[in-house]
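G., the chain you wanted modeled:
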Amino acid sequence: MASADTARLALRNLRVGRPDGTFILDIAGLKAEPGQCIGVRGPSGAGKSMLLMAMAGLLEGAAGDLRWGQTDLLTRNSGARAAFRQTHVGMIFQDFLLFDELSALANASVSLGFVKVGDRAAIKARAANWLRQLGLQDLDRPVASFSGGERQRVAVARALANDPAILLADEPTAALDWYTADRLSTDLIQAARSGNKTLIAASHDTSFLDRMDRIITLDHGRMVEGAA
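Predicted structure as tokens:
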């Protein structure tokens, strides 16, 4: 189950450097409370995706103080960061990262192989419920035959199936038509607010961003608007 304390973000002096001593990412500070939805905007190459990767503990060499609740993520080794992601983070990638040969339900419940036996039924049930809520009915069809929009909805269901405290989304509505994007935006934001999850989403979708509690703007790896 999602932990409200784990969903509390406190970030200070996050830096990702280049060999020449300059910084790809240099964020002075950012805070988020459980249930809060934060949008990240900026031009291509501004560092939006890298910021999400750092928040998930996916960047080697990131420096600074990045805490989710009591967990100082950047001081942990790669194995400990991976265990944290598995338990607490749901990630939605722009390029889906699905297994084409597997069904929608198998993709959405792929975390079954990494959890205790007693937790598997609940994860599978949540995966199926989210797939249906997102408008997918043929849960046993391989995702290789799905459209881009359908694949993105499978990816969103996968992110939510483990009931994570943290949702990190990279352009979650980019592959969707207006109606489906609007519906997905509503579902993601409602899931965060009702479940005390922190949602941080990088997006160019102004309609999606306008629904957020707060928007930060990145440019050349620095926060130029919305700093805290």
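Helices lie at 48-55, 78-88, 104-108, 120-133, 148-161, 178-194, 206-209.

Shout if anything looks off.
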